[in-house]
Amino acid sequence: MLGRALGYGSSLAGVMLIISGLMSFASYYYSDKIVLAMSGAKPADEKKHRDLIESVENLSIASGLPKPRVYVVDDPAPNAFATGRDPHHAAVVATTGILEKLTKIELEGVIGHELSHVKNYDTRLMGVVSILAGSIVILSDFFMRSLWWGGRDRDRSSSSGIFLIIGLAAAILAPIGATLIQLAISRRREFLADADGALLTRYPEGLARALEKIAGDKNVLKHASNATAHLYIENPFKADGKKSTSFLTGLFSTHPPLAERVKILRNM
To answer: CA 20 to 30 Å from 110, out of 83, 157, 198, 251?
Structure first.
């Protein structure tokens, strides 16, 4: 449709399919390395981060997962995430802030949550969804820029004009819809990881207390970005931990409301 609107016909679709294919291939095989580099993560030190490594090892055994690689981000903001295309290529990352501010039981709750993401293949799912959403945004941006700069000569018939109007509407609405779908999936997977993580540790209160501490901390994660925010156990941009009552805020949030997550955990 966008190709018809711009006057390129099916050739544009072919070019975008090739670009999307290359992006998908690179993201599938190298997404973990890209995310770790973007986050400033370094391999955990066997002596300095012994509690973290032991927690990952013990819970990996309990869950039947191969031990993932363990990384640490030097940042006072408490947070954590998991990445990797499958359990055999997974990595668990924690900030120095979370290691300093959580008790061992609370840290185990966080690790259990992240290992549940790995076991449920959430890291792969969100990678695929992110690529699809990103491809739509790139295509939309290409279309809008082509309109701005004129593009090549196009047939000005009424048929072309109709396709142009439809293409313009799609270019505006498609990225918004793709983003909303991505965020909705992210929120649902967080609930599932909370439940599975609590079952793994057999102590839901540990994760509930950890979430309250993480969300209530005033430090903002330096290395977080819109591209990686959905990976973290709690929104890295939310500094006050207060529950928002705004419908739009909840709609565009990467994570479910904290109070709702804690309530469900404490009712388990």
So the answer is: 251
Contacts of residue 182, defined as CB under 8 A and 6 or more positions apart, other chains included, come to 126, 129, 130, 133, 230
Q: In whole angstroms, give the CA distance from residue 221 to residue 235.
A: 10
Q: Does the annotation count 108 as an active-site position?
A: no
The SS3 assignment for 251 reads: helix
**223: Cβ–Cβ under 8 A, 6 or more apart, which residues?**
38, 39, 40, 73, 75
User: 124, 29 in Cβ contact below 8 A?
Assistant: no
Span 74-127, pLDDT tens digits: 999 999 999 998 999 999 999 999 999 999 999 999 999 999 999 999 888 776
Global pTM value: 0.74
Identify the H or E element spanning 43: strand 41-43
What are the residue ranges spanned by the domains of the chain? 2-266
Helix axes 104-119, 204-216, angle to 10 degrees: 100
- Single-letter amino acid, residue 234: E
Q: Calculate the average pLDDT of the chain.
A: 79
Alpha-carbon span 42 to 29, nearest angstrom: 19
